[in-house]
Amino acid sequence: MAKPALPPRTRAFRAPRARLAPPAWLTAGLKPQPTPVPWPAVARASIALAAPLAVGFATGQTTYGALVSMGALSGVIGDTADAYRMRVFNIAVPQLFGALGVTLGALVFDQGWLAVAVLTLIALVSGMISSIGAVASVSGLLLLLNAVVGAGLPMPDPWWKAPLLLALGGVVVLVLTLLGWPLRGGAPERTAVAGTYRAVAELFDAAGTDAYDEKRQAVTASLNQSYDLVLGRRARRHGRAPTLVRLLSQLNAVIPAVEAAPAAHLAARRFHRPLPPEIAAAVRELADAVEAGRTGTPEPHLPEARRPSEKAVDAAVRYAATVVHKAEPRPYNVDDRLGLPAALRVRVRRATRGVLLSGASWRYGLRLALCIGLAQAFVSLIAVPRSYWVALTVTFVMKPDFGSVFSRAVLRAFGTAAGLLVAAPILAALPRGWWDVPVMLVLAALIPAFSAKGYAFQTAAITPVILLLSDLLNQQGFHLVLPRLYDSLIGCAIALVAGYLLWPESWHTRVADRLADAVADTAAYVALAFGTGSGAGGDGGPGGDGGGDQGARHRARRKLYRDMSTVRSEFQRALTEPPPAGDLAAAWWPLAIAVERIVDATTAARIRVDHGAPAPHPAEVAVVERQLRELAEGLRSSEVLVEVRAELGGDEDGVLAPLRQEVRAARAIATPSPDTGTSSPHTGSPTSPAPSRDGLSAP
Questions:
Q1: How far apart are CA 626 and CA 205, in angstroms?
Q2: Which tens digit of pLDDT belongs to each residue from 245-302?
Q3: Measured between alpha carbons, how far is 313 from 608 in angstroms, rounded to an integer?
Q4: Of 144, 414, 641, 678, which is the most buried if we count CB atoms within 10 A?
């Protein structure tokens, strides 16, 4: 039942309040994410940060205990991987960079302009290496972070004690993390692969419903996580670790089911016939078997398959059941859907070349160096006690993989203020001593619990911990609170001006460029899916005759969805930007959804052909491919969207009919329309004139 309209007076009274409400892009980061509390990480953080303090008080070496706890804080922040063998790498390597940073920082402690020059150079290096990958990003963060701390706080003599104590804190976190390895060696990887199977089961349940797109995105995210865990450091382990090889084969076996899902979804839409619930139940049983490591020869209980899409799902589930319950998969017959990695020296050479020759790497490094240089120069010119917090704030705000610089600056200010409200009564009421140990137990536990909720919440949790540790090093007590608030606000202002407003590229989103690349890759995928290759390619999967190498199709599709996952992350970042970047990203979002649906429609058509449907004529495939390539070129090469051919004729009863419909929908979104108020049936939102790269609407 529709709600009755408000009386005119009520509407007039409420309208000003709505106008005075803060915009959504500003408040989005203040809403906590609905994530569960990671209780093991909570326990590790409490012990890792509180135990060194207790040892320091017991031995009369409070400063040493505080430095070990500070190193443990870096380890807690960097412990983001689930696989034990990856945690060794993800925690140990950044700690080495952190030790180097504090050493360099301590050498220029209280050295004025020399400290400015050294920290600016370190910021340039930190920013450039952060573009390599996740571990390099954390390493660059700790390099600069600890250099700022070393240059702003007095460190114990001789010079090697501070880096040794900070590294010892990382070792404490690493030891606590690895305690469960003997008992749960492969559990994180098994859990991740089982989670992928459960995500596929939910995808089958959602076939034919409006929830399908959301569930498909969840499957993509789960596949990304599982492949990253199982294939991590695979250059050394591939073929020699039977457990990992078996998990890789089980993960590969779910790919045919993922590819059959679009065909099932399309059939459910067209014939109003959802998949039987027994199919999702069978996939969930496979998930339980993967997680428990069970083997055997159970036969999945599946209903009879009649249509091509049902046959595809049936074959995919039975194939997955065969692989999951196979006790000894052949190690050297397990293909890698993502491609085998290059040798370590080759990857190092590529990363070095990318850092030194990439314009984006240099631009970010220069932005970070400019901000750190200004922050440290401000400290040198104005006598602010212990104002290393200014550069510290800039370091956190300017990290490239933490989200929008603008929103992080705003959220950092709010989070710091909230953290100071927590720290103020602690510093004012409690004397420094043994009371700090139980307080640290509680405060440290909040870091992993709040970090998953959002950046502002993480900042609010970390701020009182850093203040407490800083007070143990410089003994300023409650007098730290207001200066730290001022320093944070100054650091946020420097990041906003020197790291955001002075760089026009920050005002615009990169979504259009990435979408153009995705459309071009989609055109290549269409050609690959219906090419005249040698067949299925022998990857052991179900179905497949013609259509080129099946392994190549798998890799192309996985790359497309991984790239689109990156595009979605870019959208989320851009939506927190102020206008025009945020508005521009919102305008492009329907096209991103349309591209994913084109990939799904291509996969569904290929699956139908593999299971008995007539293959499309090459001319039909060529028309679709040409339309997509012209759309990609129009997005990439023009400041306004250009008109390209939109006629997509062909057999409306053939397998490509749904694909042509999705391409037409994408063109309707991307091509200017004289009627801007029409509604797109595929996006569920009004179709407005497509925005250009400079934020203007196409004519």
A1: 35
A2: 788 889 889 999 998 999 999 889 888 888 999 999 999 999 999 998 888 777 788 9
A3: 11
A4: 144
- Residue 693: the pLDDT is 32
Describe the crossing of helices 134-152 and 84-107 by its angle, rounded to 10 degrees.
30
Please provide residue 679's backbone torsions phi and psi, each rounded to the nearest 5 degrees. -110, 135
How far is the C-alpha of 191 from the C-alpha of 179, rounded, in Å?
18
Which residue shows structure tokens 């360099």? 104
Helix (H, G, I), strand (E, B) or coil at 676: coil
Nearest alpha-carbon partner for 198 in 276, 258, 252 = 258
Residue 643 backbone zone (phi > 0: left; psi -120 to 50: alpha; other: beta): beta
Q: Which residues contact 183 (CB under 8 A, 6 or more apart)?
A: none
Residue positions counted in the chain: 699
**Sign of the CA dihedral with 21 first, then 23, 28, and 29 last:** negative
Which pLDDT belongs to residue 14? 41
Q: How big is the CA angle at 83 (ends 77 and 87), to the nearest 5 degrees?
A: 40
**Cα separation, 255 vs 539, whole angstroms:** 11
pLDDT at 687 over 70: no
On whether the CB atoms of residues 406 and 500 are closer than 8 A, the answer is yes
Q: pLDDT of 145-175, one tens digit each?
A: 999 999 988 888 898 999 999 999 999 999 9
Q: What is the C-alpha separation between 112 and 658, in angstroms, rounded?
A: 67
> What's phi and psi for 507, nearest 5 deg?
-80, -15
Sorted by sequence, the CB contacts under 8 Å of residue 356 that are 6+ apart come out as 128
Backbone angles phi and psi of 320, in degrees to 5: -60, -40
Total Cβ atoms within 10 A of residue 11: 11
Amino acid identity of residue 57, one-letter, is F
Burial of 606 (0-12, 13-18, 19+ CB in 10 A): buried
What type of residue is 499? G
Helix, strand or coil, per DSSP, at residue 666: helix
Omega of the bond leading into 298 within 30 degrees of 0 (cis): no
Which helix (DSSP H) or strand (DSSP E) does residue 142 occupy? helix 134-152
Give the integer Cα–Cα distance in Å for 686 and 697: 15
DSSP per residue over 358-383, as a string? -HHHHHHHHHHHHHHHHHHHHHHHS-
Can you tell me the distance from the alpha carbon of 269 to that of 280, in angstroms, rounded to the nearest whole number? 18
Nearest to 520 by CA among 512, 509, 532: 512
Cis, bond preceding 303 (omega within 30 deg of 0): no
Residue at 344: amino acid letter: L
pLDDT (0 to 100) of residue 666? 84
Closest CA to 444 of 183, 178, 182, 172: 172
Per-residue confidence (pLDDT) for residue 294, from 0 to 100: 85
Closest among 251, 230, 138 to 187, alpha carbons compared? 230
* pLDDT(539) > 70: no
Contact 585, 575 (CB under 8 A): yes
- DSSP label at residue 671: S
Give, in order, the Cα–Cα distances in Å from 338 to each of 162, 224, 236, 531, 545. Answer: 42, 10, 16, 21, 22
What does each C-alpha distance from 242 to 89, 343, 636, 667 come to in angstroms?
21, 21, 46, 48
The Cα 129–Cα 573 span in angstroms is: 21
Q: How much of the chain is helix, strand and coil, in % rounded to 5?
A: 70, 0, 30
- Residue 334, pLDDT score: 54
Segment (H or E) for 103: helix 84-107
Residue pair 671/691 in contact by the 8 Å Cβ criterion = no
Contact between residue 29 and residue 56 where contact means Cβ atoms under 8 Å apart: no
pLDDT in tens, 397-450: 887 555 577 888 888 888 888 888 888 888 887 787 888 899 999 999 999 988
Cβ proximity of 650 and 656 under 8 Å: yes
Which pLDDT band, with edges at 50, 70 and 90, does 549 fall under? Answer: low
Q: Is 545 in contact with 610 (CB distance < 8 Å)?
A: yes
